[in-house]
Write a structure and sequence with these properties.
Strand content of chain B: under 5%
Helix content of chain A: over 70%
Mean pLDDT of chain A: 85
Oligomer: heterodimer
Low-confidence stretches of chain B: none
Radius of gyration of chain A: 18 Å
Radius of gyration of chain B: 29 Å
Number of domains of chain A: 2
Structural class of chain A: mainly alpha
CATH class of the largest domain in chain A: Mainly Alpha
Low-confidence stretches of chain A: 94-107
Number of helices of chain B: 4
Amino acid sequence: MTISDEEAVAQYLRTQDQKCFDLLYSRYSSKIFGKCISILKDEEKAEDATQEIFVKILLNLSKFSGKSKFSTWIYSITYNYCIDSIRKRKKDKSVLVEDLANEHDTADDGLEDQFLLELNVKRLKIILDKIPVTDKAILLMKYQDELSIKEISEILVKSESAIKMKIKRAKQKFKKVYKENYKDA
Amino acid sequence: MPKNSFKELEKDSQKQFENKDKQIKENINRSIGFFHFIGDIIELFVPRVVQVFLGISGGPGPNKEVEDGGSRSSDTQDTPRYPNTLE
């Protein structure tokens, strides 16, 4: 019989049963590592980040209120951890990138979802690695984790309209970088 | 099922995790064990430190009750332990 994440969390908090932790670990560890490596772009750092994120999750498990899905809560810790650590590494550059992103707020809606979803994986990876980390994270949340606008707004602590705007800008940025790299765009 | 290149990218990233799985889990368990140990230490010593400070500031010391046979002075007196208490 399989138990839900929320049940495993409740059971772990009650009994500190290692099996519950093992279950949550097996469900989420590779996903967390996958996100860390795509944002941090370094295997060793992704390894450390996965470890620290899991410790953070375990130490804060009692704060999980159950208002959102457990996966959304875990992803919020993961994305915020990765974005923060990138910002710490190159604080000034990140601020500049945000400013530049604001400048590109034009009427152009960016890309069709279909184009993004059917893009060659190799090209997708290359372009994602070239756009700012906040844009990359928001695209991963929307298209990889298939989170709703409401869930993304909870993760990034922004309004839903701000998130819609951020997605639009991220797609514009993606399109711009894609055009610079591939002639067939 | 419609294609989603983001999902394929996720699978590719997760493949790199396979050989690190055990080591990361061990490290997490070690970190959590360490935090539990620190928690136990705090749980054990903080009340004693508080008792010592209370003792220094004139309150009941840590071993006062043991020295007089474990009985409180109020146990032997006829007066109620708390003021305004009906006996």
